[in-house]
Amino acid sequence: MAARTTIAEPAEKWTGALEASRDRLLAAARGGGHGVAVLAHATAGRIVAAWTLDPAPIDPATHLEQTHTRGRRHLRRLLDQPAGAEVRSPMTNQLFARLTQSPDPIKRRRIDYTSVTSYTYTPRKPLRRVLDHALDHLNQIDQWQHWRHEGVVPVPTDGWAPSTVTLPEDRLPLTATDLEAWLWRIDQAMRLLTQRVAGLTDDDFDWQPPDGGWPLRRVLHHVARSELLYAASFDEALPEDPVARYMEADARFSKRLVAAGVTTDEQLIVFPDPYGTFFAPAAVVAEVLALESELLSQVTT
């Protein structure tokens, strides 16, 4: 069974440290040559913290079901976007690299935060990403089971394009007929995934691949988190101004941090980041402070 998070400490304990870090970062961003980059990465850090502190059921199947219900409402509203609409993701490639690096300090590489690589969403792109992501990880379940029980090492089947890639078809207009067809395919994929997951045991979820890859529990919480992030890319878009963008991410993080302190039924609740790693609220705060300290060290030295 995966380790469970604890929700024992009030948010007030961390407020002072977070506010001080925020003020130092804003001052450095206004006075330094890499201010826009610093704010972009800090915004990504605080919005990922907000996403992580959205409480989730510890059971992966329940998390997938609940997230799909929420995500589908966002997907329906993609039809409201005007032709040619495009929104920038809060994530940066640099923060992605940080969050998915090996926990082994020897294998971790220094990340250059003085530049920014990011990507955008069009109204059609979240639909593609939700569907491809569900199908990819549905296939992964059987691969992991064959690997575990029969020693058959998986052969990568990646044929999808990630969020960092915008395909020509992503820029096509989205009609009501298109949306209904997409939602039918997504519903079927999520139904199949949830049914498959419901038949797994804790041993299946927590089996550690020999190469150090992700256990299925982490994979499935990652799928659930990602569906909502893709689906809500327009509904929860941040302002374009770099300072306003950071401040809005900070406000959302602060709201979630306070709520995490009063969450009940903690034995049934976890806080997975977008990549399926469980965090306690204190550890989420520590990650934000560590990232912003690292950003400051790069722009002030």
Fold and architecture overview:
By secondary structure, this protein is mainly alpha-helical. The chain has one domain (12-299). Helix content is 57%, strand content 3%. It has ten helices and four strands; from the N terminus they run ααβαβαβαααααβα. It has helices at residues 12-31, 35-52, 60-76, 93-100, 125-150, 176-198, 202-206, 216-231, 242-260, 281-299; strands spanning 56-57, 87-88, 120-121, 269-270. The strands form two sheets. It has a two-stranded antiparallel ribbon with strand order 1-4. Strands 2-3 form a two-stranded antiparallel sheet. α1 (12-31) runs antiparallel to α9, α2 runs antiparallel to α10 and α5 (125-150) runs antiparallel to α8 (216-231). The relative contact order is 0.24.
